[in-house]
Fold this sequence. Notes:
α1 (12-23) crosses α8 and α10 crosses α11. This protein has 13 helices and 13 strands. The protein has a domain at 3-174 and 210-240 and 292-310: NAD(P)-binding Rossmann-like Domain (Rossmann fold, 3-Layer(aba) Sandwich), CATH 3.40.50.720. The mean pLDDT is 94. It has helices at 12-23, 38-46, 58-65, 85-105, 142-159, 179-182, 188-196, 213-226, 245-256, 273-279, 281-287, 299-305, 312-325; strands at 3-7, 27-32, 49-52, 70-73, 111-114, 164-169, 171-173, 202-203, 207-208, 210-212, 232-235, 243-244, 263-264.
Amino acid sequence: MRTILVTGATGLIGSNICVQLLKQGDKARTIARNPSSEDARTLQGLGVEVLPGDIADLKSVRTATEGTDGVIHSAAMLGRPGASIEEGFSSNVMGSMNVLTAAAGLGGMPVVQVLTTTFFDMWDKTLTEFSPLDLLVRNTDPYTITKRLAYVEGVARVADGQDVRFMMPGAVFGPSVCIEKAMIRPSFNDRIASAIRGEMDMLIPLPVPYVQANECAYVCIAALEKGARGEKYIAHGRPEDVDTIARICNRACVIAGVSHRVHDVSKDRLDDPEIVAKYGITMTTLGKRSYPRPFSDSSFTQKRLGYVPAPLDDGLKLTIDWMREHKIV
Length: 329
């Protein structure tokens, strides 16, 4: 039986990682700034060890890492409206450095570092596990910049011999035991729910690879168990399911049996200050880009880790049933 430290365990990916670890007979541990929150108490009720702490504090990360057999680092400041470089630096950069430093100090246990796709060179090339950094730094929003710095730190650690593996999730949605964080606004779950409730009319015209949180959790755990130092893995769902967020929300509306439909924001409005304030600089910046087809290719991950992407409509139905069970829609 292993003990795995999961940062960001109340988040959508992190909570699913904890559930899967427990189901396979491992122990899951995490740190939380507020161990008495409803989501943290839910994890404790499942058997997750929740310690007080903050990934921005090296001492608490070191304490949480002691006695573990590996780390899955999924904690991060997300690319939401109003996000700042300062906040992102504390969570995304210093948090990652602290996790990697703590792991290195305890014998170099394996670390799976969860990334984002927005700083890789994929403007006119299909994203793969071997895609290089975008050397022109075309995305300069706080989320992308701070996640990029964290990845560069991880790569530097790999070059120095530390065991770090990387996982690139897509647009994560789906059920979670931690309902509050799973429905945080403006998450991809929140967009689905808002569309079904008829509360959303427009979304950024950004093609996204929707992927279930439990699939991301599977890839993270498989990367820890079967992956190799320095390798990148992708959890992006099926290439044929990539579409704009609005169209995916409309698929959810069809499955839910509601008539409401969402439309894409016109690209010529993406510099409108009202649109930027509403949707955030990360989303509006990404919406201006053109994207290759297919968007991504996870065939290396599928072969290496046994990852089999599920059909999008299956995940949407599962998510809608979960939302209805919890009276979200």
